Amino acid sequence: MRMWPRSLSGRIVALTLLALVISQLVSFFLFMHERDRFLERVILGNMADNVAAAMRTLEFVPAGDRGEAVAALSTRDLRYRLAATPGRAFAGRSDAANTFAHDMARNMGVETTRVRVAIGPGLARGPNRRAGDALRMAVQIDEGVWLRARQMVFDPTRHWARSSLMTLVVSALLMVVIVVLTSRRITAPLRDLARAAERFGRGEEVEPLPEYGAEDIRRSVAAFNRMRERLARFVADRTRMVAALAHDLRTPITALRLRLEFLPDDDNTRSMAATLEDMARMSEASLTFMREEAATEATRNVDLSALVDALCEDYRASGAVVVFEPGPRLALVCRPAAIRRALRNVIDNALTYGETAQLALFDDEQAVTIQVIDEGPGIAEDEMGRVFDPFVRLETSRSRDTGGTGLGLSIARSVVQGHGGEITLCNRPQGGLAVVIRLPRTVAI
Fold this sequence. Notes:
Layout lengths: L7 H51 L7 H8 L4 E6 L11 H14 L6 E5 L15 E8 L2 E7 L5 H45 L13 H34 L1 H11 L6 H28 L5 E4 H14 L3 E4 L6 E4 L1 H19 L1 E8 L3 E7 L34 H11 L3 E6 L5 E8 L5
Parallel strand pairs: 6-8
Antiparallel strand pairs: 1-4, 2-3, 3-4, 5-7, 8-9, 9-11, 10-11
C-alpha cells in the first residue's frame, strides 16, 4: 500500500503533520526531563527539611513513646516508621541517590554514613526504583535505631500524556485545514499548467495561461507560454513551407508533361511520364497531408469501439475483408477524425499487402490498444523503422507496383504521437504483420 501521497498538496500536508508530530514529541520529552529535575529539587529539599524536623522532635520524646510520635508525624504523602536496619531498598544505591544522601547529611549536620537515600519513580532514574515510591530515606537516630521515611508523589505523567495527545490532535486538525486551503491555492497554477501541457501534448489548441502564484510558479508558466508560442510558430512555418514547395512543384511538373507530348513515344518517354506522374501524386499527397495537419480538430470524448466498428463497416460495405468484434463502450478523449484517418491508412496497408485486416481492442487503466493484423509477407526487422519515414516504400517486402506515395504510415504515426501514443510493428510467427497502436488515456489532474 502506497503511504506517501502523490499530489503536491498531499505531500505538503504530510510533511507539515510530520513536523508537527516530531516537534510535539521533542517538546514532550524535554518537558518530562525538566519536570523530573524540578521534582528532584523540590521534593528532596522539602523531605530533607521534614525529616530533619522529625529528628529534632524525636530528641525530646522518650524512647518508649517514639513509635506513637512517629505515627503522629506521618502524613498521607510522607510516612515515618522506626526500624533496626535501613532496609533492603537502599542496596546498590545509584550515584544520584548517594549524592542526595551526602547533601542531606550535610544539611542535617550528621555523618554521611547515617543517611540512606533511594530514588524511585517520578524522580531521577536508578536501580532503586520501587513501584509507588517516589523517594525513600533512612536516617540513623541511635545505635540500632533507624528512622525510615517514604515520600509518595502524585505522578501526573498519564494526565500530561493525555493532554499532550489532545493538544496534538487539535493542532493537527487546525493545521490540516489551513495547509489544505493554502496548498490548494498555491498549487492551482501548477494544476492549470499540467492540464494545458496534457492538452498541448495531444495537439489541442491551448490559450496562453495566466501567470499568477509564487515567483517560481509564474516563471514556469511564463516559460510554458513561450514554449507553446515558439512551437506553434515553428510548426506553422514548417507546414507553410512544405505546402508552398509542394504547390510550386505543380508548375514545372505540368511544363514537363507538355514537353513530353512533343517527344516521340518510346520507352524513355513513357518512363519519364511515369516518373512525372509519381512526382505529381507525391506533390498532391503532400498538399493533402499539410492541409490536414494545419486543420485544427478539438478533442472530445468518443466511444472508440463504436468508431472502429463504424470504420470497419464502411470497408465491409465495399467488399473488403475486415474483421472486428465490437465490445462494450470504450470511452477515450481524442480527435476522432484524426484517429479515423490513421486507422484507415493502417487498414489500407493491411488490405493492400495482406488482403485481409483483423482488428482488436484492448483496454487497461493507462491506455487503449488497437491491434491491426494482416496475412501479408511482413517486413524485414531492419526495415521496420524506415517504413514510418515519409515517401518510403520498401522494395523487398512491399511492391511499388501497388501504388501509394509512402505517406500512409507517416500520417498514422503523426496522429498517434499527436495523441501522446505510440505505434509499433511486429512480424507474427504464423505469418503476417501486426500493427499495434497504443493511445494513453487522459490523465486526471
